[in-house]
Amino acid sequence: MKKIVIVYGLIAGLILVSMIFIMMALVGDSSDFDRGESVGYISMVLAFSMIFFGIRSHRDKNLGGAISFNISFRTGILITVIACLCYVAGWLFYINYIDNSFIEKYAAFYLNKLNSSGKSSEEIKNEIVAFNKNMENYDNPGVMALFTFLEVFPIGLIISVLCALLMRRKVSDLSSEPKEVT
């Protein structure tokens, strides 16, 4: 299981990290983060599809075609954690070595969007205070890593549960399959 989890986790992580660079190229100087958000979710689903392939590989290669929900879920969640750690490393690399002005660009985008949202001045003021507090926390590398991890982890968790439900197969289910005639 260890090799499968590492391989599929790294493939998923590579997809996520690649999408960081692709999304940032799409956003560019336009600071249109809405466009990057939709591409981001699509890339997460694409990356976390590796969970399905990892569980299937483990089931078929190592377990003789039978796998419980528990083992399926553990395989999926380990792939998710490896992919998320890759994503965190890629994001920290990007923000520290490639575009350290990202936070200022995003803050300007968010404030512009907030001001044009039609909310009352009191609501805008409260959201700006909360946003500035989050940005202060985001300056801490540990908090930044945690926020970045939690950005993608819930998607991987959901896909791990779904794949574990879909992929589980009992040994008794295998014996009821039609036998191939040779």
Task: Give a written overview of the molecule.
25% of the residues are buried. The protein has helices spanning 2-27, 33-62, 69-98, 102-115, 121-138, 141-167, 171-175. It is built from 7 helices and no strands. The chain is elongated and about 65 Å long. The protein has a domain at 2-98 and 142-171. It is 82% helix and 0% strand. It has 182 residues and is mainly alpha-helical. The longest helix is centred in the first third of the chain and has 30 residues, at 33-62.
Report the β-strand fraction as a percent range.
Answer: under 5%
Report on the biggest sheet: none
Shape: elongated
DSSP strand tally: 0
User: Helix tally?
Assistant: 7
Helicity level, as a percent range? over 70%
The helix/strand order is HHHHHHH
Radius of gyration: 21 Å
Structural classification: mainly alpha
